[in-house]
Design brief:
about 15% strand; globular
Length: about 650
């Protein structure tokens, strides 16, 4: 294949590649904060391929230089329809900074992990540049950064409330959530001559309008204004309940929030994607590889997922610190077996595929094809979680379709073994269902996964050991984790396997106190864990936990909740993860004495509680962790393919 023919397999990213196709004009030009990886797990590729399939001429400009004479923003000229801005698979501030607000040295979505290829807040930076250069061309903004900042939100890095992205950016329209359906509708309308003002009834978008031009509609929910939120933290907290409930409602209502002389309007989303619609997105002609421009360079995020398959979108877990349902929704949109098996077959044809699928999963590995038995009941439901505080009796948590699919994948020629790299919701497996068939299916799935689909280590996320903290997190009791560990150990022994269970934990989550962390250290020690996968809570937009962190109030009860805020308080909690490190012992002992928990000193250290005179290590990971196991980067504010369930 000639270079010309080969390059035409990707969407064009340069003027030369546009000319190769014989195009004298582009319909849409997308600007992306990530490198261009033509894979269904990368947002710009999905939107670009979706528009291409709808008949539009699309180019992508990945990681444009915003510091120079702006030639990257000018090089392809003005599109016929609109500019699209996709800031990246990950919120730029999570991408750039640690929980301690230290600048990260690496970016997994950039070739060779360079950390200087995107600005902070590319949603704002890119759209402002485009508006200055092309004042009359519509700008459509999407991606997780804009999606989760669509209304007044707390920005941890600036430590203040900011208005919604429709107000902060120069975009005409912000698409929130998964963008395939609204982006095509917008393209069709603009092509037919619609103005920006005539797009305002498109579902799943947010935009600003002069406050005096707002026409009320039946069912509108008017939130406390941005200015009221600035004055009163309780009003900010009260807003969030409406925002979360409408994000997860099957029939959502329009949200309105005033910001100065404007009003941000958030239209209800499209209905849940059908199997045919989600198949259409995953079946597009992706090359599944980075653009040839990056030949010889490593893009870590791609390396992590290139031999994996995402089987569904959405998560009904509703964890308090997680953004998945805010972006993808709580209702599960599952691909067909045909689509999934075809993607696996495409994997087997990749030159570097050795027979091992790194992950057959999703936001949570074991929610495939699960939904309510009575969808009429789901239409009325405003619960943010289908499994907390208890598993909804209307949920059909049948694991059989997933178990059968695993077996079909493993039977394909060229597949030696498939692993489950996404996090597993063990509460769905350990629950005692009234329907014996569901319990049997869960037991069979557990046996299948542990005996055949674990790559030496299985990731699960209990997150904490305190039931009080877990309730705030919307996670199940730690007793359920212990039950799952016993089953995991039993299956390993039965099959003569030596596999590890790797639990994830969070420190400094709202509601968590130092004594809770001390108990966590003791309980995990009793289970023979020396924790590796841990992180300090990082507030990210559009989560219950972040609202509590900033306001001090729980948005559903408006009751006060304690949260560790200062560096000293957060460090004091995090140190308990590493009770087994000699350099941490004197600090933990001192902390326990201050709490009056001398009983825990002996239980943790036995007769070895004398303070060491070794100097305390200067930590640099998480908040400050040099010499500690590196904290796992949370997927919660990302569409990154690194999947795990929380």
């Amino acid at each position: 294949m000639s270079e010309r023919q080969d390059l035409k397999r990707w969407l064009p990213i340069s003027k030369k590649e546009v000319e190769m196709r014989g195009w004298d004009e582009l319909d849409v030009i997308l600007f992306s904060g990530d490198a261009y990886v033509d894979h269904p797990s990368f947002a710009a590729a999905v939107i670009g391929r979706t528009l291409e399939a709808a008949g539009y001429r699309v180019a992508i400009i990945p990681q444009p230089n915003w510091r120079d004479d702006l030639r990257d923003f000018k090089k392809l000229g003005k599109p016929r329809l609109f500019f699209g801005v996709s800031p990246g698979n990950m919120d730029s501030m999570v991408n750039h900074y640690t929980a301690a607000k230290r600048l990260r040295s690496e970016d997994a979505y950039t070739p060779d992990r360079r950390s200087d290829m995107r600005p902070d807040y590319p949603s704002i930076v890119y759209s402002r540049i485009l508006r200055e250069l092309f004042p009359d061309t519509p700008i459509i903004l999407g991606g997780i950064e804009a999606s989760l900042r669509r209304l007044t939100h707390y920005d941890y890095w600036q430590d203040k409330l900011l208005p919604g992205m429709p107000s902060m950016s120069e975009a005409d329209v912000v698409i929130y959530g998964m963008g395939e359906l609204p982006i095509v509708e917008i393209a069709r309308r603009i092509e037919r001559g619609a103005s920006v003002a005539e797009l305002r009834d498109v579902p799943q978008i947010a935009f600003t309008i002069p406050a005096d031009q707002v026409t009320a509609q039946d069912g509108d929910i008017t939130l406390n204004s941005h200015e009221d939120c600035l004055k009163d933290k309780k009003k900010y907290a009260a807003n969030f309940r409406h925002i979360e409930e409408q994000s997860n409602a099957m029939h959502a209502r329009r949200l309105l929030q005033r910001v100065g002389d404007e009003t941000i309007i958030v239209n209800p989303p499209y209905p849940i994607m059908t199997t045919e619609e989600i198949d259409r997105s995953f079946d597009l002609p992706y090359t599944r590889t980075p653009h040839p421009r990056y030949k010889g360079k490593v893009i870590s995020a791609y390396e992590m997922i290139k031999h994996s398959v995402n089987m569904h979108r959405g998560c009904f877990g509703g964890c308090a610190f997680c953004t998945i349902s805010a972006h993808q929704g709580k209702f599960i949109a599952s691909r067909s077996e045909r689509s999934i098996l075809n993607e696996v077959k495409a994997l087997t044809r990749m030159e570097d595929f050795k027979g091992y699928i790194s992950d057959l999963g999703g936001p949570s590995a074991n929610m495939y094809k699960m939904q309510g038995r009575n969808l009429k009941a789901c239409e009325r439901c405003l619960r943010p979680s289908c499994i907390h505080p208890d598993i909804c009796p209307n949920l059909n948590a049948d694991h059989r379709p997933l178990t059968e699919l695993y077996r079909k994948v493993d039977a394909l020629p060229g597949v030696k073994k498939s692993f489950i790299g996404s996090g597993i919701r063990y509460d769905l497996l350990m629950h005692e269902y009234k329907d014996a068939r569901l319990s049997q299916a869960a037991a069979e799935y557990t046996e299948e996964v542990v005996s055949k689909h674990v790559s030496g280590r299985l990731k699960v996320a209990p997150e904490h050991t305190s039931d009080r903290v877990l309730n705030l997190m919307r996670k199940p009791s730690f007793e359920l984790f212990k039950k799952f560990k016993r089953e995991f150990d039993r299956i390993n022994e039965k099959h003569n396997l030596r596999q590890q269970l790797i639990p994830y934990f969070i420190s400094s989550h709202p509601g968590c106190k130092g004594e809770d962390m001390a108990e966590l250290a003791l309980l995990t020690k009793s289970l023979n864990f020396k924790l590796e996968q841990v992180q300090d809570f990082t507030p990210t937009p559009m989560t219950v936990a972040t609202v509590i962190y900033y306001s001090g109030y729980h948005p559903y009860t408006l009751e006060k909740v304690y949260t560790a805020i200062t560096k000293d308080d957060k460090d004091a909690q995090r140190q308990y993860f590493f009770w087994y490190k000699p350099e941490e012992r004197p600090h933990i002992v001192r902390s326990l004495k201050k709490m009056g928990r001398l009983d825990l000193i002996d239980k943790l250290f036995g007769g070895q509680a004398q303070p060491s005179h070794r100097p305390k290590t200067e930590h640099k990971g998480g908040s400050s962790d040099k010499g500690r196991p590196k904290a796992h980067s949370s997927k919660r504010n990302s569409t990154t393919p690194r999947r795990r369930s929380r």
